[in-house]
Design brief:
heterodimer, A: 258 residues, mainly alpha, B: 247 residues, Rossmann fold, 3-stranded antiparallel sheet, 8 helices, 38% helix, globular
Chain lengths: 258, 247
């Protein structure tokens, strides 16, 4: 753990530069540039709102708010993973030639997506304003699900980035897993809509606790239960430690496999 | 004279996997065939040498003799399988053309990332930016994406960044051959300057002419062992005998 903090400290400028590079490359040569970071979640939300509140007629008041409160954290999670899973393999040429801390690559991918995520909060505020949806005082609780989300994502990112070095299938499998996981997570709907026997299954989905925190605070204006808060933090911390220790254990041999 | 590089009985073994299971499918079929398909290859078989401050060492040898492996060990890219490979001081590796350049970013943007990668702070990079650009002599191309660069321009920028970071040890892998005569002279001058300031340079090359011109010591590697270590003329002579020998 200390090694990681030390690496982050020594390489902070490099990590930041790599994260900005990642964003710059992502939006380079597109006419709208950084606006895409805002437009993308907005468009996704419009499409999903039309599909789910008009066509399938899910009866939820303020469905756009209901949706986006869980969609934004989910999008962060899935995009951050898609970027970081390749982060070691993409920098293969570098690893073979320069001595550099391996952890900076998944970290830079994460930070790029954190920035993107923060930008995408603008459309959320816009929607709240347009729909005249009230700001609940429970927003002050948001740092808790945010911390859980970032830790959980970082743990997964370390794990998948390392695994992908040894088996390149991992990045393909991950895309399928993310798609399935999206539909099995309470983003488009709430587990309350389902029959109790399915509800039990959601207990095994770590993302449920995290997404629930966001939705409770933003949409319902309530604090999650104590169990829920504990579960979401625990999920974040445990996943982070597990994913990171796998990465640490394997990083010495990356250079021979990339 | 400070000791910069100390190699003691260094062995580097690679697990050469004839068909490395890059994917799960291959890994599974391998399990069923029950054949691991790996064999060990010793790139370096117990080499020892010391390099001091201010030495310009040329590593020569045929393909597969272990030159690049030795260079990567000095760069700290990996650790030796056994033996000691100790390096003290800041190393600037220039192994192959512009490793670490991002082709979509401009030369200027790459200077920052590459400089940080080589261990400078942002402030230090900024202070050196102008002299890096001047030495590379890329003119207006410095603000174009590096994917539009010729290989010569690539090399000039890489060499310029690596030498401006003011390392204690400079590693050069065969890239000097790309520049034109004018830039070669600039490189030579800079290498001489490095030497006068007591810096260490390790230079890998197939070209006897370059080694003779630049180095004051040469090591001949063959099949992962040191065949000769001494003055460039003598070592090059042995090298030339070696390559003219029927294999």
């Amino acid at each position: 753990m200390w090694t990681l903090l030390r690496e982050i400290h020594t390489n902070r400028e490099l990590i930041w530069a790599l994260a900005l590079k990642e964003l710059r490359v992502r939006y380079k040569r597109s006419a709208l540039g950084f606006i895409w970071a805002l437009l993308n979640p907005l468009m996704m939300m419009v499409i999903l709102t039309i599909v789910f509140s008009t066509i399938t007629r899910i009866a939820v008041d303020y469905y756009p708010v209901f949706l986006i409160s869980a969609l934004l954290p989910w999008t962060f999670f899935s995009q951050a993973l898609s970027y970081s899973v390749e982060s070691i393999v993409i920098n293969a040429e570098l690893l073979k030639k320069i001595r550099v801390a391996k952890s900076i690559f998944p970290l830079a991918a994460l930070i790029a997506n954190v920035i993107n995520f923060l930008l995408s909060l603008a459309p959320l505020l816009l929607i709240l304003a347009v729909l005249r949806f009230p700001f609940h005082w429970t927003w002050i609780y948001l740092p808790v699900p945010l911390l859980s989300l970032f830790l959980f994502t970082a743990g997964c990112a370390f794990f998948f980035a390392a695994a992908n070095v040894f088996f390149r299938d991992v990045s393909h499998i991950l895309q399928i897993v993310l798609t399935a996981w999206f539909y099995l997570s309470p983003v488009l709907y709430s587990p309350d809509f389902l029959s109790p026997k399915y509800k039990l299954l959601f207990r095994f989905n770590p993302m449920m606790y995290i997404l629930n925190g966001f939705r409770m605070a933003i949409y319902y204006g309530q604090l999650p239960t104590k169990e829920n808060i504990t579960a979401s933090l625990l999920v974040g911390i445990v996943t982070f430690l597990a994913g990171y220790s796998v990465f640490r254990r394997l990083e010495r041999s990356f250079v021979f496999y990339v | 004279m400070a000791l910069r590089i100390h190699f003691e009985n260094v062995v580097q073994r690679y697990r050469v996997i004839r068909e490395r299971p890059d994917s799960l499918r291959e890994a599974f079929t391998k399990i069923f065939r029950g054949n691991s398909g790996t064999h060990d290859f010793e790139a370096l078989r117990g080499i020892s040498f010391d390099v001091e401050d201010g030495e310009v060492l040329g590593l020569i040898g045929r393909n597969g003799s272990g030159k690049s492996t030795a260079l990567k060990l000095i760069a700290g890219v990996f650790e030796p399988t056994s033996g000691k490979a100790e390096v003290s001081g800041k190393v600037a590796p220039m192994i192959e053309l512009g490793a670490g350049f991002h082709i979509d970013l401009t030369g200027r943007e790459n200077i920052v990332i590459n400089g940080l990668m080589l261990g400078l702070t942002r402030k230090e990079v900024m202070a050196r930016e102008q002299s890096i650009i001047e030495f590379a002599g890329l003119g207006e191309f410095i603000d174009s994406p590096v994917k539009q660069y010729s290989s010569g321009m690539f090399m000039r920028l890489a060499f310029s960044i690596a030498t401006e970071t003011d390392p204690d040890i400079l590693l050069i892998d065969e890239i000097l051959a790309v520049g034109d005569a004018e830039f070669q002279e600039k490189c030579d001058a800079r290498i001489q300057d490095f030497r006068h300031r007591g810096k260490t340079i390790v230079f890998v090359s197939h070209s006897p002419i370059l080694v003779r011109r630049i180095c004051d010591r040469a090591i001949l590697l063959d099949h992962g062992k040191i065949l000769a270590d001494g003055r460039p003329e003598q070592v090059i002579e042995m090298y030339e005998n070696l390559i003219h020998q029927p294999a």
